[in-house]
From TrEMBL:
It comes from the Bacteria. NCBIfam families: edd. Catalyzes the dehydration of 6-phospho-D-gluconate to 2-dehydro-3-deoxy-6-phospho-D-gluconate. Its EC number is 4.2.1.12. One of its GO terms (biological process) is Entner-Doudoroff pathway through 6-phosphogluconate. It catalyses: 6-phospho-D-gluconate = 2-dehydro-3-deoxy-6-phospho-D-gluconate + H2O. SUPFAM superfamilies: IlvD/EDD N-terminal domain-like (SSF143975), LeuD/IlvD-like (SSF52016). Belongs to the IlvD/Edd family. Its cofactor is [4Fe-4S] cluster. The lineage of its organism: Bacteria, Pseudomonadati, Pseudomonadota, Betaproteobacteria, Burkholderiales. GO terms for cellular component: cytosol. This is Phosphogluconate dehydratase. It is an enzyme of class 4 (lyase). PROSITE patterns: ILVD_EDD_1, ILVD_EDD_2. It comes from Ramlibacter humi.
Amino acid sequence: MPLNPAVDRVTERIRERSAGTRADYLRRVDEMAARDRGSDRLGCANVAHAFAALPENEKLKVVVERVPNIGIVTAYNDMLSAHATYASYPALLKDEARRHGATAQVAGGVPAMCDGVTQGTPAMDLSLFSRDVIAMGTAVSLSHDVFDGALMLGICDKIVPGLLIGALHFGHLPTVFVPGGPMTSGLSNAEKAKVRELAAQGKVGRAELLESEQKAYHSAGTCTFYGTANSNQMLMEAMGLHVPGAAFVNPGNELREELTREAMRTVLGIVKARRFTPIGRQVDERCIVNAMAALLATGGSTNHLIHWVAVARSAGIRIDWNDFAELSAVVPLLARVYPNGQADVNAFQAAGGPGYVIRELLDAGLMHEDVLTVREGGIREFTREPAEGLKWRDIGVSRDESVVRPATAPFSATGGLKLLTGNLGRSVIKISSVPDDRHLIEGPARIFDTQEALQKAFQSGELEKAARDGGGSLICVVRWQGPQANGMPELHKLTPPLAVLQGKGLRVALVTDGRMSGASGKVPAAIHITPEAMAGGPLALLRDGDVVRLDAEQGQLQALVPHEEWIRREPARVPGAQRAESGVKLGRELFAMMRRNATEAEQGACTWL
């Protein structure tokens, strides 16, 4: 199948826009790759320090016999259920390296916070910037510069983007990402959401809510809804950075250990074969477009409209939200996974999983097939699934068309992502799970400076009254939530109260310069507004009672205020009593430099530029 013209056009536009920066990046990659091996290039004292802790026979191998040495960067901690399984991985990977005449060292560890723990707390102000901390930690780990390849152990929200950004700054190294798999299915995501809405209405108490949450999040492994963590895994498959089909095999499954060992065999295969596929060469504009297509086809996390901009920049590639929007217009929605459907990721895997989606996109001309991957067989290898004995087999037809469908009969002809523009700035909305009759909301604005203030207004009945007074419609605006204001926290805690109002027949929407991630769900939410209020963006001009029009079909986000009045307004100032000034900071003050330096959301909220 020839490449879809829109995919070809977007790719070529990205290539032209990035020509200079990509050329500079590849020149650096080639210069780094052309150097002598670390143990030959470094001074004797440096080499002795690097390998002092290795067993004597391995010191001999790496220095004298010059066998490959693989650096392992791990995001292990047992606070994150997804990452708890990584405790045993370094020993396993080292053992596999030895079996193949190589060595491996844990190059370093990077921090990994759980957004599920920090939602709605001051710690969430650190969350987005933890991505750049992880990238820096990855760079520190690899800066010892004695490695011939690398393995990245990470799964969750900011961790994979951070590891990938860091790895691309060492783009001369062949690199494979190593997942750990999702926990088995517990309480369904739909039932969990129902209990949350009941709790928001005060119809169930803390004990019932806690019981529900613990049934949903019950063991080691990644959470089972299709948020940022599992979107990460889908994108790693689509970019060819995993062992094929490794994303959603559960911990404890017999295949899990073999897939982990295969990751070591894969990176060693690249190094030993002298097949020049370092990660910096592999991740090019076609690879980035493939990731974007896979995200759109699965209704993945809106966080990646920030993260993958930053990832691309790390490889000298420039993408923007126009690129996502143009791709979304031609990439069909092929998967319904919660919150875009009732199935969880285990059901997604059982129905065909990433391999099915990738095959359908390739066959429809919606992904580039001529890309490099960590495997010699290219991206077609990622259309198959691993089976017993680590043999890969064809997936065949969808095993459940309520979960995954062919490109010829999709859930929707488009990817469900829309770019919104207007006098309130640029923003994005994910409509793949928003009811069709809620794609257009027009109503008076009720403005909040914190998410806590909105929650209090809901609990007091103020929001419902305002919506009814506004003819049944209300636009809830939460500003001062961008990267420069407070680190751009996710606002998941707002989903249940707004869903309750929508369930009562009221037409409500959220407008914010903050994030909602993959859990934005059925309530229309215009998010990531750029420029943010803190940077003088137009949200600071909005006043209570202004009529706002959110039109996802036409791509508009507009304050219906006469232009003459709009341009005369003085912007509101960030309240001094914000949480940023409160006594509970949880280390937030250490991130002040990042807030000052952060770029806008559409530029990746990068702090290193």
